[in-house]
Amino acid sequence: MVLKTIRSATDRWNQKNGEFAWIFEPYTGDEVIALDCEMTSLDPQKAELVSIAAVKIKGTQVLTSEKLDIKLQKPESLSGDSIKVHRIRGVDLLGGEVLGDALHELIQFIGNRPIMGYYIDYDMTVLNRFIRPRFGFSLPNKTIELSHCYLHKIQRANPELVPDLQFETIAEKLGVPMVGERHTALGDAVTTALMYVRLLKGPSPSY
């Protein structure tokens, strides 16, 4: 955490006159970005990006009209094993965006808003592996982990309970339907956004 804080301060100083200086400013609004990425590997040091999706949450509303849904050019490491998970084949990525352009679009879309997701640290680690060499900084945004929000809500009502934190189980317990197919970036981003809003304004799920 200390190293992250120091690095973010250094990045902010280095970017003070740059295009993205504004994303280092404190955010004071009521919007959050739900983010999901599909990748070629579960190893964050090897994974390459296949698709990126993000949707805005304003207060307790999911703004599905304000979203980002990007398929990238086929990465070299796209394999049969990864295709079984996200079901995106090489042919599906024909005409996909260049990674640098996609990341620029993502940074502009997110801005300095908090980023929320399911196992969001994994997505952030992979994104920053590609963002830092291209733009000279890592995303400084506050992150919100959906599974932690769910766990805290459950344990406020049942302190001794250790709930199942699988994505599908959380959705079921919250009464949130899956949007699109599981392991598609946009479907998972919207489903995650709906679960987060349900946690903000709904009662604690029963166990």
Automatic annotation (TrEMBL):
GO molecular function, one term: exonuclease activity
Alphabetic keyword roster: Exonuclease, Hydrolase, Nuclease
Keyword Hydrolase appears in the UniProt entry: yes
Residue ranges annotated for the Exonuclease domain, each copy included: 31-205
Pfam families: RNase_T
Name recorded for this polypeptide: 3'-5' exonuclease
Organism of derivation: Marinospirillum alkalitolerans
